[in-house]
Amino acid sequence: HGVTVAVVTAAGYEYQREKYELRLSGLLAFFKELKLPAEDCERFYLFGGECNYLLTLGSDYRLHAVKEYGPGGWMLATKYIPDSPGNWDEQDVNEILDISEETLKTCVQQHKLRARVVRKKRAVGMFPKPDYMIPREALDEAVLTVQAELLGAQIALPFCAFNGGRDCWVDVGNKRVGVEILQSYLGIPVEETLHIGDQFLNTGNDYAARDICPCVWITSPDETTYILKSILRLAGVSLRPAVIPSVPEKEPSSPHNESTANKDVNGEKKHKNIDFAEIERRTNMVQLMDVYTGEIKTVPSVMPRPESSSALAHGSAHGSTE
Description:
By secondary structure, this protein is an alpha+beta fold. It is about 30% helix and about 15% strand. It has helices at about 15-25, 25-35, 40, 75, 90-110, 135-150, 175-185, 220-235, 275-285, and strands at about 5-10, 45-50, 55, 65, 115-120, 125-130, 160-165, 170, 195, 215, 245-250, 270. It has a four-stranded mixed sheet, sandwiched between helices. A four-stranded antiparallel sheet has the order 5-6-8-7, covered by helices on one side. Strands 9-10 form a two-stranded parallel ribbon. α5 crosses α6. The chain starts with a strand and ends in a 36-residue tail after the last helix.
């Protein structure tokens, strides 16, 4: 129906597409299983690192980098936008990274956290060591401290310091810039843009998008599904249900304990849609890469795919909610 979908995520692996594909493996496999037409594939984008790395879906159901310069280059085409990455000076980029790295390391020491600080090309993050959870208050405190330090230094470039739930990150750039670039590059007006996210507080990475387009604040994948279905219904688009195998519930130990809540309106036994093969596939996928650092642990010779079309994808950040 001509709709363009873009995943704008803080997860930043530069243009190493296989790492993004691991994070979106269920969704990409679902596209392939549906035999999504090439013209629909071309309307799916991923913007990594908030606004730093633009990729698009090919007819082979794999992500491909969109060139930055030359004819059709996204950085070249959006240089008229003041905050576009095409206008950034590397000295300003490094200033953000230097201040953020030093501040997060200080937070680890002051709060005696069992945490690591890692620096990427356009981001700095703090995440827990194995078998440890950083308290939410410590993550918020680190984010607010970094924000204060960067604002005090009168940083010239846009940035985003946010609490990812299990970690915190500071990105050069933010989702406001990412959405604005997509609007310009794809020729989509503000009134036809909708940003859906779950981090709209001042310590979240969706907050900045409120300045550039209408937004919907969700709290779970189920809410995302509900919002998307509502939009489709309002647009008059019929919903085609995916074919998901049904697995019978475990029979109760005693017929006297069976609740009527487990029966449908006809008195027949209800079934739960549980795809154990998909659950196992996702579990194995997570073990292939360190989501914090992007380090590949093992690379399969053939990308595993789900045996049913129940694959879903839930957006996240560098490590947890990007």
